[in-house]
Design brief:
The chain is an alpha/beta fold and 464 residues long. 30% of the residues lie in helices and 24% in strands. The strands form 3 sheets. The chain has an 8-stranded parallel barrel with strand order 1-2-3-4-5-6-8-9, surrounded by 5 helices. Strands 10-11-16-13 form a 4-stranded antiparallel β-sheet. A 4-stranded antiparallel β-sheet has the order 14-15-12-17, with no helix packed on it. The two termini are 35 Å apart. Bound molecules: ligand G3I. Ligand G3I binds next to loops.
Length: 464
Amino acid sequence: MTEQPPSGRRRLSIRALRGALGVGLASVLASAGLVALSAPAQAADNLGDAAAASGRYFGTALATGHLGEQDYAATADREFNMATPENEMKWDATESSRGSFNFSGGDQIVQHATAAGMQVRGHTLVWYSQLPGWVSGLGATDLQSAMDNHITTLMQHYAGEIYAWDVVNEAFQDGGSGARRPSPFQDKLGDGYIEHAFRTARAADPGAKLCYNDYNIDGVNAKSTAVYNMVKDFKSRGVPIDCVGFQGHFNPQSPVTSDYQQNLERFAALGVDVQITELDIEGSGSAQADSYRKVVTACMAVERCNGITVWGVTDKYSWRSGGTPLLFDGNYQKKPVYDAVLQALGGTPGGDPGDPGDDPGDPGSAACTATYAETQRWGDRFNGQITVRAGDSAISDWTVRVTLHSPQTVPTTWNGQASYDGSVLTMRANGNGSLGAGQSTTFGFTVMANGNWSAPAVASCTAT
Ligand code: G3I
């Protein structure tokens, strides 16, 4: 990494780099010189930015029922750059009657997350739980077609908006047998249903990463080995799988084991990303901090561990609220464990989250910020989306410059006025320049990769 950025780039918002850095794009760092842009002198003071500095994301589960609570939304928006709908994309929420789909909750999470510059993990397509009764009552042929239709309809509805889907969730039993868990899918369709689900998913949205997700597979044990063998088999036969999700629900009876990193490493060696998808650790004080530190440190040590999601914003809304397993207490105050996690991610604790001015890239001190996210990838091209957000004052106009990577070209743009200068795309507002304080808008463009899939980098956002 020898490239030095032009000095002006040092003033770039760390937050503005989230999208470009945020999803395991280690190679992007090199090609875009973005590590240098994140300037060690300005260590991140929130979880998402800290994770982004190493090409990772740090996410949370979000629930629509709490988005209206100002502190909930503000804490989520400030700290995280990935969101997972806690219940809103599950089968019972999206298709409670056969063929009648309800996307309202999922859409709300996607809209909130996107406006806040977060990406989204889809959770979950095929799971024995939160499954409507009508699915369990179907015969094999009907069940197969219902499963295919469910996967395809959800993935196509959210095509381009989901970073990774938990295609199949919790298909293996606990205990020493490593057996499949009984479920309508397993019982009627047999072992092949998981492979079939992944193949169907790839066809439905080729741009989303496809994950298998489970709990109690965090260390090396019979259950994780059964999952490992399935992934190994899939990779050897070309069954499309991109990632494994390790839920990470821990408590004193089920602590983080000493082989945690080793387990991540063995999966990564199969050629899949590994992601911590539902992390929560019951406890408090330094013991809780130590356990979280172990998990985060292990992920940081494994190149293909490209993101961590905690299963909720605040203890008071956790599914295990009595165990106080999260990073913020019921009053949205940072717990001791927060600093441990931020430090393990490479960030610097101590910033006052109430003072937006403590990050020079924060909307509090910049007229506008711009955040890149890839929203879709297919064939020889991909779509990029930039979220432009006003700082703490209203703006009437904005201009964003985006640097492409040779030999990329841009055949199409939308929601802005485009002009080009070499590899720099300049987008000016086109009817969407007027933004209130903290408000955002988006514009997009298609990039012909021409063999270079590096993420375009935001070079500047200026506003009047
Ligand atoms: O929304 C209804 C509400 O209208 C009703 O009054 C109330 C009565 O019980 O229930 C509410 O729904 C609850 C829902 O959470 C929303 O709060 C369900 O009963 C409750 O079962 C559901 O729990 C969710 C659980 O999955 C269900 O399996 C938790 O929120 C959610 O955190 C949890 O998440 C799972 C992951 O998806 C998979 N891995 C394990 C993880 C923890 O169990």
